[in-house]
Amino acid sequence: MARERIVTPQEQEEEQEVSWGLRPRSLDECIGQQEIIESLRVEITAAKQRKEPLDHVLFHGPPGLGKTTMAHIISEEMGVEVNATSGPALERPSDIMGFLVNLSRGDILFIDEIHRIPRPVEEFLYTAMEDFKVNFTLDKGVYTKPLPFKLDHFTLIGATTRAGMLTAPLRERFGIRLHFDFYDDPDLKRIVERSAGILKVPVDEEGAFEIARRSRGTPRIANRFLRRTQSFAEVKADGKVTRQVADDALRLLRVDEKGLDKLDHALLKTIIEVYNGGPVGIEALGATLNEEVDTLIDMVEPFLLKIGFLARTSAGRRATPSAYDHLGYASPANLFSGQSLASPTLKLE
Ligand SMILES: Nc1ncnc2c1ncn2[C@@H]1O[C@H](COP(=O)(O)OP(=O)(O)O)[C@@H](O)[C@H]1O
Ligand SMILES: [Mg+2]
Hints:
By secondary structure, this protein is an alpha/beta fold.
């Protein structure tokens, strides 16, 4: 049976969000991420005053927190065009050349998943970012010598879930580097209320809060839960999203009290049952769970680390006592004193 997933493929989610019209379009419309918004406000105002393009910007942080949204907001606020692509789509320098030559002064090139660009493309970007010049060698044909090519002064915005995978030379070429962290519950509640307004979903305070607090600090998940709860409310209740309706809808989606889904549970259970609580390497976990390591690192681990259910040590991942507790296992301290595992009372099974 295919595993039910909260986080469906990113492109699919992005398309849905765009069609739902939930993306904020200006800095003023954004909720939360105060530090990022204030920094960008200053940089955008300064660039406009100097009549210069914005410095290159790097956004890093877990998926669904607003990196792509913010790139589009910057283009709106600066009044420039944005061209979007992604790391895996840029296989050769010629792939990025097409974007670069079409950028006018001040325009934005947005590269999502920038940690996944191949090394030759990355090296090609260095001079483009620094001197707005490239030496372009045609892949085929009579010219074997690189042709120098002058570019307009553009702004590169890169987004990545793995800042650590960027090489230092690339990272250093971004003048503005901003980290997106998970949203707190009050901010997420405001996001749910804003989205409910746009989608015309009647939702009361407690209903909005219930969705918010189970959305793993992530607006993308909050919007998706709101949408699913809306359907549930229309079919199973009187259309209004109350705390009870939200709870029933989320339960049906197999989202637990803390917002953890089946994959979160599977990961923690595996560490606890198969690896005695850890430490265990991520590769081994991926193999045991039959799940992509990238998915575990990007979509699953960050929030479990954030809420202290998972600890990362040099030897690998460990489940913490809170994780044992949440999943209904006897705490690990008891394990070491010779007691066997309590029979787990998993809420989701
Ligand atoms: N500051 C914000 N305020 C309100 N909604 C937001 C905010 N940031 C993101 N969102 C919502 O979350 C969704 C996911 O954001 P996105 O930019 O696609 O995340 P990322 O690129 O980091 O994966 C957006 O479509 C938008 O609806
Ligand atoms: Mg994105």
